[in-house]
C-alpha cells in the first residue's frame, strides 16, 4: 500500500452519509476526548502533531509528491482549543459504533465537519491505511 497522506482528504463524494469530526470553539479544553481517539487524531491546542502518532505509518507522501518521515512534527491546527487532524479521523470506523470524542465531550463540541464529507468506504479505507492492515 502506498503512503499517501493526502488521499485521506481527497475522498470520493458520491456517498455523503458520513463526515469527519471537528472541534468547535466551544471547547473548554478539558482533555477528555484525547485519550479516547483510536487514531490519535486529537491534539491539545498549540501542540504539534504527526502522522506516526497512534498509527503504523512510517512515511507519508505529500501532495507535491515528496515523501516525508511520518514522525515529522506538523503545525498545530489550533493554538487555542483541542483540535482534530481530519486526515487521521475515521469517525472511529472499525473501532467503535460512534465517534468516541463526541460521546465523552461534556459540552458537545465534537461535531460533523461539513468541510470533510466522506463516505463510510473512505473512512474504512483510511483506517486500513493508518494502521497498515
Ligand atoms: S471521531 Fe473517533 S477517530 Fe475521529 S477524532 Fe473523534 S475519536 Fe478520533
Ligand atoms: S472533550 Fe470536548 S471540551 Fe473537552 S477537550 Fe475534547 S472537545 Fe474540548
Helix-strand blueprint:
Elements: E1 18-23, E2 42-43, E3 59-61, E4 67-69, E5 83-84, H1 100-104, E6 110-118, H2 120-131
Antiparallel strand pairs: 1-6, 2-5, 3-4
Bound molecules: iron/sulfur cluster (SF4) (2 copies).
Fraction of residues in β-strands: 15-25%
> What is the N-to-C succession of helices and strands?
EEEEEHEH
Number of domains: 1
Helix/strand class: alpha+beta
**CATH fold-level label:** Alpha-Beta Plaits
Number of helices: 2
Ligands: iron/sulfur cluster
Q: Strands of the largest sheet, in order across it?
A: 1-6
Q: What is the 3D form?
A: globular
Count of individual beta strands: 6
Average of pLDDT:
88
- Quickly give the CATH architecture: 2-Layer Sandwich
Distance between the termini: 9 Å
Tell me about the biggest sheet?
2 strands, antiparallel
Radius of gyration: 14 Å
Helix content: 10-25%
Unreliable runs = 1-16
Structure description:
The chain is α+β, with helices and mostly antiparallel strands and 133 residues long. It has a single domain, classed as Alpha-Beta Plaits (2-Layer Sandwich). 13% of the residues lie in helices and 19% in strands. The protein is built from two helices and six strands, in the order βββββαβα. It has helices spanning 100-104, 120-131; strands at 18-23, 42-43, 59-61, 67-69, 83-84, 110-118. The strands form three sheets. It has a two-stranded antiparallel sheet. Strands 2-5 form a two-stranded antiparallel ribbon. It has a two-stranded antiparallel sheet with strand order 3-4. β3 and β4 (67-69) form a beta hairpin. The longest helix is centred in the C-terminal third of the chain and has 12 residues, at 120-131. The radius of gyration is 14 Å and the shape is globular. 32% of the residues are buried. Residues 1-16 have low confidence and may be disordered. The structure holds iron/sulfur cluster (2 copies). One iron/sulfur cluster binds next to loops. One iron/sulfur cluster is lined by residues 21, 36-39, 41-42, 84, 89-92, 99-101.
Amino acid at each position: 500500500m502506498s503512503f499517501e497522506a493526502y488521499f485521506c482528504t481527497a475522498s470520493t463524494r458520491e456517498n455523503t452519509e458520513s463526515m469527519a469530526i471537528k472541534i468547535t470553539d466551544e471547547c473548554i479544553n478539558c482533555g477528555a476526548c484525547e485519550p479516547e481517539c483510536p487514531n490519535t487524531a486529537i491534539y491539545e491546542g498549540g501542540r504539534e502533531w504527526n502522522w506516526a502518532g497512534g498509527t503504523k505509518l512510517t512515511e507519508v507522501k505529500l501532495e507535491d509528491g515528496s515523501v516525508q518521515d511520518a514522525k515529522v512534527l506538523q503545525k498545530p491546527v489550533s493554538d487555542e482549543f483541542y483540535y482534530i487532524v481530519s486526515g487521521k479521523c475515521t469517525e472511529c470506523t472499525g473501532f467503535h459504533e460512534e465517534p468516541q470524542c463526541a460521546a465523552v465531550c461534556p459540552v458537545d463540541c465534537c461535531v460533523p465537519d461539513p468541510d470533510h464529507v466522506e463516505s463510510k468506504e473512505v473512512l474504512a479505507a483510511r483506517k486500513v491505511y493508518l494502521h497498515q492492515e
